[in-house]
Target: Delta-aminolevulinic acid dehydratase
Amino acid sequence: MYPLRRNRRLRTGEAIRSLVRETSITPNDFLVPLFIVEGKNIKEEIASMPNYYRYSLDLLEKEVKELWKLGLKAVLLFVKVPDELKDNAGTEAINAEGLMQRAVKTVKNAVPDMLVMTDVALDPYSSYGHDGVVADGKILNDDTTAILAEMSLSHAKAGADFVAPSDMMDGRIFEIRSLLEDEGYHDTGIMSYSAKYASAFYGPFRDALDSAPGFGDKKTYQMDPANRDEAIKETLMDIEEGADIVMVKPGLCYLDIVRDIKNTVNVPVAVYQVSGEYAMLKAAAEKGWLNHDAVMMEQLTAIKRAGANMIASYFAKDAAKLLS
Ligand code: PBG
Model:
């Protein structure tokens, strides 16, 4: 074919490159994870996540208004729970006046059109730091899913648009969907962490919420990073059970999984670019070893190219600012 076909013709300048570009990032692509703490006037930086903060509710209000101005229209809420409120059953998780429930109302009050998604899992509430009820060193599946359903209902009552179960118990999507339907919350959506791996990239997040497991690890419920077929199985089951959006987590190391799932399902696919991915780039950029903005955009583009319809990312605000 050469020299009739020269592929570089389509790369000669920015005008032609942008015409033929297959993937682009916009503020519409993002879910913004937000960490919330009790108190007033608190904006504290997370040590292992430079330039990322925990907010008290009053400052959360300011933050979501700023996000909205940048074109970011969806938030994913996480709460840091004081130790004295933690127990094995995560009782505080279903407190109608709990921090999460108040946070949902705060966001809706500040920016009524902001899409609010809530994290549904026991670990921030668990005295063991696990995503389920513990007995004899084991994580009990069915006792946990019943609580997750109650927790989801409580978030829906507070005004959450979507609940996002991140726990990886079997059957939790079915339990949550059933209870939401029974209680008339037909429009409350479920974004399921369907293919969530037992990853070492979650470390900084566990610092942010003080939610590291007190014993053992999460390998009896989160997936083995070595597995690919299993991700399809998990995801198809979650869709059958009622998930509206499915998620792959973490991001970069799992883009083969993202593409597999994108090619297999007909619901939107979310990807979570997790805390460790954020920390790695921040650290390298601080040292001057990588160009922060360029690498950030390359990573986000790669995630979207792999098949993500949306990206939960701690870079959302950085990217939105860069794009504006
Ligand atoms: C726990 C949960 C985790 C994350 C989101 N929800 C950590 C874990 O499974 O231990 C991690 C997110 C991140 O690392 O950014 N339910």
Summary: The chain has a mean pLDDT of 97. The domain at 25-323 is CATH 3.20.20.70 (TIM Barrel). The first strand starts at residue 30 and ends at 36. Residues 134 and 140 are 6 Å apart (CA to CA).
